[in-house]
Write a structure and sequence with these properties.
N-(1-d-carboxylethyl)-l-norvaline Dehydrogenase, domain 2; eight-stranded mixed β-sheet; 12 helices; 8 strands; binds nicotinamide-adenine-dinucleotide; 13% strand; alpha/beta; Rossmann fold
């Protein structure tokens, strides 16, 4: 199976290397020439434990390559993942979809034969439908399906999270796409990780709902920490007492500086905008 990953950033590079490890033939495409040159020289653009070895192993095996030439990679693909950035749009808190839409239009121009185009970027509800419309617009003859497959990996534990995920979420609107994606994710199925198949909108919203819930746990325990300070309680004991309840769970209940990182701030803002 030939996979093309559009965007060789954190998610694209880790996912691409892991799909190659599963046995697929993968090309990661990026617009940044220096990034692709460095990757071809075995230099990783990010620090992620184990990534350099995984990339080298799969490059050496002939299953993983890097390119800036989207136009020549897209026609060869059975599956194309869009894994480009979706930062906060300046001024209004919405997710900025300009990179996703630009990638969709470029992909549409070069499709050849039945292809599944999969949104791996974190995107608001309605994006899969919009991507489908854009591709049909630029290439009315194209034979394609669109799917949504949000990514839940954590930076620093990305390979383990990808290879042994808590779940894979697939937003799918037709059986052809489901068959292709189930085949790609077969190694995940073999380790009995749940694969949740749902519609586009549910898959898109699941990612934001999960991140917002985790961010809420962090903010909640910080509020409780303030209360503990005021009343003479020990927040670590309170968090432990809460977290031992299986309905609550002990993770993300550590008081600290508040949530941050590359995703929670932008994704919580974007969820508010989706809801509005
Ligand atoms: N980083 C994480 O931990 C994480 C986890 C889960 C989900 N996500 C989501 O995944 C998406 C990607 O995040 P990331 O951290 O990998 O971003 P990133 O900025 O590391 O990588 C994006 C890459 O896409 C490239 N790109 C942009 N437009 C392109 C185009 N038209 N053709 C080819 N390449 C193009 C950029 O040059 C860049 O290298 C975001 O929506 C993010 O919210 C990120």
């Amino acid at each position: 199976m030939k996979v093309v990953m559009i965007g060789a950033g954190y998610v694209g590079l880790v996912s691409g290397a892991c799909f190659a490890e599963f046995g697929a033939s993968v090309t990661c495409v990026d617009v940044v020439q220096e990034k692709i040159d460095a990757l071809r020289d075995g230099v990783m653009p990010i620090y992620e434990p184990g990534l350099d070895l995984l990339v080298k192993k799969n490059v050496d095996a002939g299953r993983l390559g890097f390119s800036t030439d989207l136009a020549s990679e897209v026609p060869k693909a059975d599956i194309i993942f869009i894994a480009v950035g979706t930062p906060t749009r300046r001024g209004d808190g919405h997710a900025d979809l300009k990179y996703v839409y630009a990638a969709a239009k470029q992909i549409g121009q070069h499709l050849n034969g039945y292809t599944v185009i999969v949104n791996k970027s974190t995107v608001p509800v309605g994006t899969a439908s919009q991507v489908s419309r854009l591709i049909a617009e630029v290439n009315p003859e194209a034979d394609f399906s669109v799917a949504s497959n949000p990514e839940f990996l954590r930076e620093g534990a990305a390979i383990g999270d990808f290879m042994r995920p808590d779940r894979v979420v697939l937003g799918i609107e037709d059986t052809r796409a489901e068959k292709v994606l189930r085949e790609l994710y077969r190694p995940i199925n073999l380790i009995e990780a749940p694969i949740l198949v749902t519609n586009w909108e549910s898959a898109e919203l699941t990612k934001y709902a999960a991140n917002a819930f985790l961010a809420t746990k962090i903010s909640f325990i910080n509020e409780i920490a303030n209360l503990c300070e005021a009343v003479g309680a020990d927040v670590h004991d309170v968090a432990k007492g809460m977290g031992l309840d299986a309905r609550i769970g002990k993770k993300f209940l550590h008081p600290g500086p508040g949530y941050g990182g590359s995703c929670f701030p932008k994704d919580t803002l974007a969820l508010i905008r989706i809801a509005q």
